[in-house]
Design goal:
170 residues; four-stranded antiparallel beta sheet; 5 helices; 7 strands; 29% helix
């Protein structure tokens, strides 16, 4: 996987350093990532989608497993056997049927967040099929972009760091 650094955010101060030459815009109706990628599901993703009324058997591919080293991360999102796209991609509109509740991997794509101490490095996967990379109408990966797109992830890490600091003082 080719990836390129596009930004770093300090989780404590929220100061951001970013590559001003890179821009991104998700192109509505594209669906290329939904058709081309294998999407890992976290337990939280499965629970959230089940709360919408779906059975895990409808959307979890129990035959595809994701690992990081020897650590099991989760199963894959199922593909539609006819279209070979994600089971939640509407083939007519190319829109996600569960967009507001989509898995974290879908929300982050094409970005990869890598935590190093109190900093979060943000990389972009340089997938040739993604028309949103360096899109002329795209946005730079500024603090506003990061907080809009990944604010909940950043906030989760901020709280974990605060808890760890509090526990180390106790």
């Amino acid at each position: 996987m080719l990836k390129k650094w596009v930004a770093t955010i300090d989780i404590t101060t929220l100061e951001v350093e970013f590559d001003p030459s890179f821009k991104f815009k998700c192109v509505e109706g594209c669906g290329a990532c939904c058709e081309r990628l294998e999407v890992p599901l976290r337990d939280e993703d499965i629970v959230r989608i089940e709360e919408l009324g779906y059975s895990a058997w409808e959307f979890v591919d129990y035959e595809k497993l994701f690992y990081r080293g020897d650590k099991f991360l989760g199963y894959a999102l199922k593909k539609n056997p006819v279209t070979e796209a994600c089971v939640f991609l509407d083939p007519e509109t190319k829109k996600c049927k569960i967009y507001a509740h989509r898995p974290l991997a879908c929300r982050l794509y094409p970005f990869v967040l890598v935590k190093h101490g109190h900093k979060m490095e943000i990389y972009v996967k340089e997938d040739s099929f993604c028309p949103g990379l360096n899109h002329p109408e795209g946005s730079q990966v500024t603090k506003e972009f990061i907080m809009r797109e990944f604010g909940d992830v950043i906030e989760k890490y901020r709280k974990e760091m605060e808890r760890a600091q509090h526990n180390s003082r106790s």
